[in-house]
Amino acid sequence: MEELKEELKGKIIEVLNLEDVAVADIDDSDALFGDGLGLDSIDALELIVLLDKEYGIKLSDPKQGKSIFESVNTMAEYIAKNRTK
């Protein structure tokens, strides 16, 4: 699971072009939106595409994203249970 979390942080930084953020800067339990990493709704769409391309996970209900994208921990748990790639 730790390996997945590290991989996920790297992919988030890469996909969202977070130039001033390093993998070590993101805590597993930090909020991704709002006060944490400060992502916005456009970033959420990018994360949905990331899940589909990298892990074969299609979110049919965008409202699911709110709980899935809470933190790196919640994303990693969801990916571990639902990945097809």
From TrEMBL:
SUPFAM superfamilies: ACP-like. Residues 1-83 form the Carrier domain. Gene3D superfamilies: ACP-like. Keywords: Phosphopantetheine, Phosphoprotein. It comes from the Bacteria. InterPro entries: ACP-like_sf, PP-bd_ACP, Ppantetheine_attach_site. PROSITE patterns: CARRIER, PHOSPHOPANTETHEINE. This is Acyl carrier protein. It comes from Sphingobacterium olei.
